[in-house]
Each structure stands twice: as structure tokens, then as C-alpha cells.
Design a protein that fits this description.
This protein has 306 residues and is of the alpha+beta class. It has a single domain, classed as DD-peptidase/beta-lactamase superfamily (Beta-lactamase, 3-Layer(aba) Sandwich), CATH 3.40.710. Helices cover 47% and strands 12% of the residues. The chain is built from 15 helices and ten strands. The strands form three sheets. The protein has a five-stranded antiparallel sheet with strand order 3-2-9-8-7. It has a three-stranded antiparallel sheet with strand order 4-6-5. Helix 3 runs parallel beside helix 6, helix 8 crosses helix 10 and helix 9 crosses helix 10. The chain binds glutamic acid (GLU). The site of glutamic acid (GLU) has 11 residues, from loops.
Length: 306
């Protein structure tokens, strides 16, 4: 596979979509990013990395961090990860990522780890396991991406906190049901920091390599059991692209996780991990040009999981 040539063609296909979406404006710090950006990277399972466009420009990972926090909780639980699945489900929610409505009827157990409520539970667990969830996440992402310069974006974290009433409400609600182990202020603070980490398409594609290598890191050491990597990929496929995961699976056919910063990571088990970034979002919160690019990638290569 000539990845570079495929990426050039994918980028040319996606270009017209770049200005079609709307840059996230729910926090002022995200709104500052230019809508014109587009980058895509592929990291194959042997460690080769290819990229086109703004693939080395850092952006706010936002909800893409939810994939990595789940992986880190599983890795830190040393096989005892089943406890997390008593506190969070694995069904699509059919409601927006920050919705409160299901929590009351479902006794404070979020539908899945990729909506905000579920990610807050995962962050809470990570806080218990590590004593410092957000710093552990940063170190984990530095390790997996091979980029020791990764950092939090303080302006984004502060902005999230200033506009964090809804996340605070989700956390308090779950605490009322006994589904948090740590104080609400600490859980939401670590969650905001984890969302604020800045990474490029290159960093994210490389960091997500273990998902394509059935749980193995680039150096061959084991981060997760193969079945754990399978489970993360399965939840990405069914719940990873907000309330549009069905449409995304239909169009692209890959496990993927998106974030409101405009990034999407996607996994082709046994082959490679991709990351695409373009800040213009559709009404569901997925990058318009990013989805078009991944759609075209699987069309050109025939590499969906189906
Ligand atoms: N930090 C964001 C929030 O909790 C994550 C948004 C996202 O990427 O879905 O609202």
C-alpha cells in the first residue's frame, strides 16, 4: 500500500468539505482555531508514519482522550478491569454526549464510556488507581506517541472549567447514586485537563497504535490483552462518534473516536491507526472533512472492518 499516495488523494477529496462545518464554540478557547485546517496521518503497525496537510499541528484532543483514559484504566487494572463495566455500560446512548436525561432512569450508570458521564466515571477510576488522573494521562500519551513535548492547554482547561456546569451536574448526579469514588471537584478538574491535552494527527495515530496491534505497544510489549483492545474498538465502533455512530459505521466502517476539537482517530485492526483533523463540525459534533476523508480512505483501500 502506497500510504502517501492514498493520503494525498484522500486530502484532495476532503478539501471541499473543510469549510462546511462549524468550529466548536461552546468554550471560547476552541473557537479561536481556524476552520481552514486539515491534516491526516496514518501509523502502520510496523511504526511507519505518513501524513498530509496539517498533520503535525497540535490541536485540542477533547473527547478523543476518552479512548485513552479507558485504555489506561484497563491497563492499570491488570486484568481486573471488569469492575469498570459495573459502573458504566457499553450501549449507544442515542442522546447528545453531554445529556443528563438517561442518568436518572438508569440509576447513575452512564450508557457508555464515550459520553461525558461515562468518561467522568472512567476518570474517577483512573484517579483512584493513579492518584493523579490527568498527569497519568499526559505521561501515558507522551509514552505511546513518543512525543515528550505533549502538554495541557491551560486556556482550554480553564475555559472548560468556567463553562463546566453541565459536566459538574453530571458528576454530582452520579455521585448522588454512589457512582463516584472521588470528590466531584477533583473528578471534573482532571477530566477538563485530560480534554485539554494538545496533540497532532501524527501523535494520535502513533499513540493509538496499540489498538491496531491487538494491545501491543510499538516496542512489542503488551499494554492490553487482545480482547481488551477488541472491546475498546467495539465500543468505538458503536459509541465513538457521538450520536452518529450508526451513520459513521455505515459510511466508514471503522472503530473511531471523535472530539469537538475536530479530530477523529480510526483503527484498522492488524494494519494501521489513522487520525484526521479539521475543526469544522457537523450538527452531531463530528468533523465534516474528517468524516469525508475517512469515508474516502476506506473506499479507496477497501479496508473497513467489514
Ligand atoms: N471537554 C468537552 C466537554 O466535556 C469534551 C467535548 C467533546 O469533545 O465531546 O464538554
Amino acid at each position: 500500500m502506497d500510504y502517501q499516495a492514498v493520503l494525498e488523494e484522500v486530502a484532495a477529496h476532503a478539501r471541499p468539505y473543510v469549510r462546511q462545518g462549524r468550529v466548536a464554540d461552546y468554550i471560547p478557547a476552541l473557537e479561536r482555531v481556524s476552520a481552514d485546517r486539515f491534516g491526516i496521518a496514518v501509523a502502520d503497525i510496523n511504526g511507519e508514519v505518513y501524513g498530509v496537510g496539517d498533520w503535525e499541528t497540535p490541536f485540542s484532543v477533547q473527547s478523543i482522550s476518552k479512548t485513552f483514559s479507558l485504555a489506561l484504566v484497563m491497563a492499570q487494572s491488570h486484568g481486573g478491569h471488569d469492575s469498570i463495566w459495573r459502573r458504566v455500560g457499553r450501549e449507544p446512548s442515542g442522546t447528545p454526549f453531554n445529556s443528563l436525561v438517561q442518568l436518572e432512569a438508569e440509576n447513575g450508570i452512564p450508557r457508555n464510556p464515550f459520553i461525558n458521564a461515562g468518561a467522568l466515571v472512567v476518570t474517577d477510576r483512573l484517579q483512584t488507581l493513579t492518584g493523579d488522573a490527568s498527569t497519568s494521562m499526559l505521561h501515558f500519551l507522551r509514552e505511546e506517541s513518543g512525543n515528550q513535548d505533549l502538554a495541557f492547554d491551560q486556556a482550554v482547561a480553564d475555559s472548560e472549567a468556567e463553562h463546566g456546569d453541565r459536566n459538574a451536574a453530571l458528576a454530582h448526579f452520579m455521585a448522588a447514586f454512589g457512582n463516584l469514588e472521588n470528590p466531584v471537584p477533583s473528578v471534573i478538574e482532571h477530566y477538563f485537563w485530560q480534554c485539554s491535552i494538545e496533540m497532532s494527527c501524527r501523535d494520535l495515530a502513533v499513540a493509538g497504535g496499540f489498538l491496531a496491534r491487538h494491545g501491543l505497544r510499538a516496542d512489542g510489549s503488551r499494554l492490553l490483552e487482545a480482547r481488551e483492545a477488541k472491546r475498546i474498538n467495539a465500543v468505538m465502533l458503536t459509541c465513538g462518534t457521538y450520536d452518529a455512530a450508526g451513520e459513521f459505521a455505515y459510511r466508514v466502517g471503522l472503530p473511531a473516536k471523535s472530539g469537538v476539537g475536530g479530530g477523529i482517530i480510526a483503527v484498522i485492526p492488524g494494519r494501521c491507526t489513522l487520525c484526521v483533523w479539521s475543526p469544522g463540525l457537523d450538527a452531531r459534533g463530528n468533523s465534516v472533512a474528517g468524516a469525508a476523508a475517512l469515508d474516502h480512505f476506506t473506499t479507496l483501500t477497501g479496508w473497513s472492518v467489514f
